[in-house]
Amino acid sequence: MSAEALMGVTLAVSATLAEGLAQLLLKLATLHPARKWAWTVGALALFGVEAGIYTLALDHLAVNIAYPIGALSFVAVTLLSKLILRERIGPARWQGLILIMLGAVLVASRA
Amino acid sequence: MTPAPAPALPLKVVLGLALTILLDTAVQLFWKDAVSGLPQGPLAVEVLGALHQPLFLLVVALMLGQFLNWMLVLEHADLSYAHAITALSYASVSVASLLWLDERMDGLQAAGVVLILAGVWRISQGGHVSVTEPGHER
Q1: Is A106 close to B81, i.e. CB distance below 8 A?
Q2: Overall average pLDDT of the B6-20 stretch
Q3: Domain layout of chain A by residue ranges
Q4: B136 in a domain, yes or no?
């Protein structure tokens, strides 16, 4: 992998992590009404960061590579939900997640 | 011992998730349409053109609706459940762009849509909320 591609992949993966964190903050906003606005503003800021990082990633990568990497956000959100929110991820949710990931990559394969 | 059945999915969650997919699909279609109507030129010209393009304002309004609706969904469902269900918009956007934007879908993409539908169906077989654990009262 060239240095440019590696940079692009790193940026795209970072964008999906920012998306996962933003979603986590939105869920925290619904769980803790007293801090709702703080979590919400934080989430919106992270969505802005995500958009910026993804734009930079597109400078280094073709969209048909960058877009499928975005499907990793399903994994990021699930792991963060399990680790931080203590949500119980049963076998059905993991199996469905794997099918969705494969499907998203196929749909984006012709992007 | 058989596991406890998953709690029934409330109608408001079903409607909220359906609205999420609908709004996401509409945003993608209108956004694409709006971008193709932009004047060609330097970035500043394109940004100014976007500000005068009613479709862009519609996209912003739809995004706002999307955000408010998503907050309501998250009040009643696990993040890991609701977020995974939104993958349906990959399928709906693919089909809608086929019908309204005259884009094409090949066999591989169609297989992807089927896999996404199967994944969402599998997730829907589980519960939409976890058992509350200490420190995370709902």
Answers
A1: no
A2: 88
A3: 3-108
A4: no
Running DSSP on this structure, what letter comes out for residue B77? Answer: S
Mutation test of the interface with chain A: which of B63, B122, B129, choosing the one with the most A Cβ atoms within 10 A? B122
CA distance A93 to chain B (A): 5
pLDDT of residue B103: 83
Taking CB atoms and an 8 Å limit, are A74 and B84 in contact across chains? yes
Q: pLDDT of B54-66, one tens digit each? A: 888 898 899 999 9
What is the C-alpha to C-alpha distance for residues B92 and B78, in angstroms, rounded to an integer? Answer: 22
Range B81-91 burial, b when 16+ CB lie within 10 A, else e: bbbbbbbbbbb
B4 lies in some domain: no
Q: Is residue B74 part of a domain?
A: yes
Q: Considering the domain boundaries, does residue B25 fall inside one? A: yes
Q: How many CB atoms lie within 10 A of CB B66?
A: 17
| Residue pair A53/A15 in contact by the 8 Å Cβ criterion | yes
Its ipTM equals 0.85
